[in-house]
Design a protein that fits this description.
The chain is of the alpha/beta class. The chain is built from 33 helices and 28 strands. The protein binds a DNA duplex through strand 4. It is found in: Nucleus.
Amino acid sequence: MSWGFMRGSAWKFLQSARYNNTAYATPNMFFDEEQDSASAAADSTSAEDDLDSLVLFGLFRGNVVGLRYYTGVVNNNEMVALQREPNNPYDKNAVKVNNVNGEQVGHLKKELAAALAQIMDRNLVRIEGVVPYGAHNVFTMPVNLSFWGREENEQLVVGHMKKYGYKLEPVPKGLGRNALSKGAGSSTSLPAVQLTIEQLKTEFDKLFEDLKEDDKTQQLEPAKAVQTPLLTHQKQALAWMVSRENSQELPLFWEQRKDLYYNTLTNFAEKERPESVRGGILADDMGLGKTLSVIALILTNFHNGQPLPITEVQSRKQKTNTPQKSLTSDPNKRSRNKASQGQCSETRAMGSSQEATCARSKRPKRQNVKRDSDDSDEEWLPRKTKSSPACSLPSDDQFAMALSGATQGVKKISKKKIIDKTTVQSHSKCVQELRRATLIVCPLSVMSNWIDQFEQHVRPEVNLNIYVYYGPERSKDPKTLSQQDVVLTSYSTVTHDYANNSPLHKVKWLRVVLDEGHTIRNPNAQQTKAVHSLDALRRWVLTGTPIQNSLKDLWSILSFLKLKPFIDREWWHRTIQRPVTMGDKDGLRRLQTLIKSITLRRTKTTKVKGKLVLELPERKVYIQYIKLSTEEQRIYESVQTEGKTIIGRYFREGTVLTHYADVLAVLVRLRQLCCHPHLVSSSFSSTSLAARSTPEELREKLVNKIKLVLSSGSDEECAICLESLNIPVITRCAHVFCKPCICQVIHSEKPNAKCPLCRSEIHVEHLLECPEEEFETTAKKDQKWMSSSKLDALISALTEQRKKDPHVKSIIVSQFTSYLSLIESALGESGFMFTRLDGSMTQKKRTEAIQSFQSTRVDSPTIMLLSLKAGGVGLNLTAASRVFLMDPAWNPAAEEQCFDRCHRLGQTKEVIVTKFVVKDSVEENMLKIQSRKRELAAGAFGTNKPSGSEIKEARINEIRTLIDL
DNA sequence: ACCGCCGGGTGCC
DNA sequence: ACCGCCGGGTGCC
């Protein structure tokens, strides 16, 4: 079969058949109408995927029939969902009508269904229903249908309906047709105040920021099991989270009227009380201690509003059950993991007594309540606590008192009362009594951080079982998992588990916590579905960035929180997302209320009692001048003299820029000599350039030279965009630019593009990318190891610091990766523990390096060797409070960014930066250029970009300054 | 469903 | 009687 044959309707058929399980009822087969181009456009993109760009085609009053056959009921003005039912044995065109709870109410009348089936199946239209009068109908009821779709399909849909004898009513005035183009309003409420795009955008940006200054100021002392003292804002987080988990309040947008519960958004009502949302979104900025807050929550609201007590007798360390080989290479940890696996027998015993609770709860209620509350303590406290009640009780009482301050509406709660209430409440579902374990789902990269933090913050004598559910050895037994206190796992494991019917989804969790919760924002991703289907009473989402792109991202999170009625995307979309994107002020207000009620967010600018949540400690930058040794000075001066001669000649000839590569090579050599003589590769021989070879050979040499310049780690800039090089490429004339920049130049100057720096002819096909990882260390292996003046200065600074405080961590930064290697040797000699991060490392190695450095363990490395450009802005190295910048960068901003990797939220110590600069050298001249650039950046904001000639002028002047000419 | 529709019974007034 | 009309049976898709 040729592709040409496939391209027509057959292809379309295959495509829709793929997405539609009922192959024989695939709409295309019955869609015998004009298959014009407009309809083809809609086939490929599902209208579901881009709900925001839909317009309202028109309205129609239809009928719902067959009410008496179904249990679903609707109220006046209640929203209903329309669902195609292509497998209905009586009518392949059938369209089901469901209420907000997903219960079937009836069907659309068959004639109408016949008209709708095809256009619905082909995603040409999305139809929404509101029943204007639904309360007392027995056999049929009216339904107001609104037709939504992509603008280009409007005529097709309207024409199609007309053909079946249905004329869509035009959209009434004041009701929005388009997002933000005309009036606005939802299909249920009439014209609302509309916002402009700008207003909407501002409101949207403010959505999470507004949460900062509100009433979530209650504080709660954590359980004694938490050994780290909480900061004020963390106690606030704890109070808020505990009160949300124990909340008996109706969820937002629900009202009780007589014996029914009404949803005010959809007008849906039901007898059963909607579950409180026992959880929410903790959206604190990075560094505010979300992890600690959650650990405190787990220990403080451990069971029935009670903390996990400390068992005095137990001297055993806290347990970390790891079924796989330890995540870190730490041998201590590995042995501890092994030892802890024997621990399981104890938890199993506890599990069987939980079953006993379940059986008992079927007894007559009266007796039961009391017994349960009494027994409950026994079951949930580790056995040994019983023998030493003196230990656990004071902390419980303290907790009860603290809780009375934090729980709304209840004045004074005794411990007993809480338990009675909960027991009665969940009596019907005795299963809930079995729930013990908290599941923490996080990206694999932060899993070891959780383990570290548990070890750091939980008192060692506390008997807390943690199981790391990861790796091939993990237990497939749900019971093992449900008997843990904490199970840690990764998103990919949850996803894999979901597809393979493994235990994670069988356990009834007490609590599920999603770390970096924004990772589930794609509603169609398997991962999202896997996470949504976890069974838990309490649900939390931790994220620093709750909304990344649009409102759409929120749905997955809200659905995970089991926030009725938003679990189903349709109701979220109809009641919040669309009204908001259409600029409806009421919709926005609803969204704001919603977010406010379930989110706690503090940022670095949030204030508690007028003081910033976290005040960044000071940062001090010192320059330490280095004097070269006589020998180093001799080499430096000889290279400098040679370089000055060559570059001086270029200046006289006016050919500095055409020989830019040579110039840079000289400068790099000088900068390297300031650091360590061994950095200078012997292949740097400026005389080779002078020798005339064939044009091909010459170019080859130039290109090799610039490659050396690039791979030596210097921070070269693109002369076109003035930013750091993005995909560096080399021209035939040996000038280096960002690939996108120079390609644009070549494109716009077609066909005679010239190099912006030297005006030689340039062609796209001659551009050469620098081969990514060329890491022959320029420092020769056969050279005998020696130190350098700067290296000596570094080591003595580090040694002195270690004497003062051996736990202080440092970052050592250089642009030359080979220098980092030399430093490694020196560090090793002096017995420093270090790790390294540079551009050549795989993502996996990078995360490993970052984690081991950030770890608080006593045996973690105290030094991080960092290449200047390694890692993005996000790189977080707050474990360090000292920075040693071994060589100045061209661009002061690059240095600043580097300092900020440790001087950022989460830093608790004063940060001291030391810049090593060799006196009377190219480095000192670089400082002059830096301060010039700083002035430029500060003063000339908003002025035009410098022209080509200005750039050239500036470059030439820079070179003059650098080489002292 | 106090409808519409179907189909059998029926047939001057 | 190949109609009209009556009234019972019946009822989503």
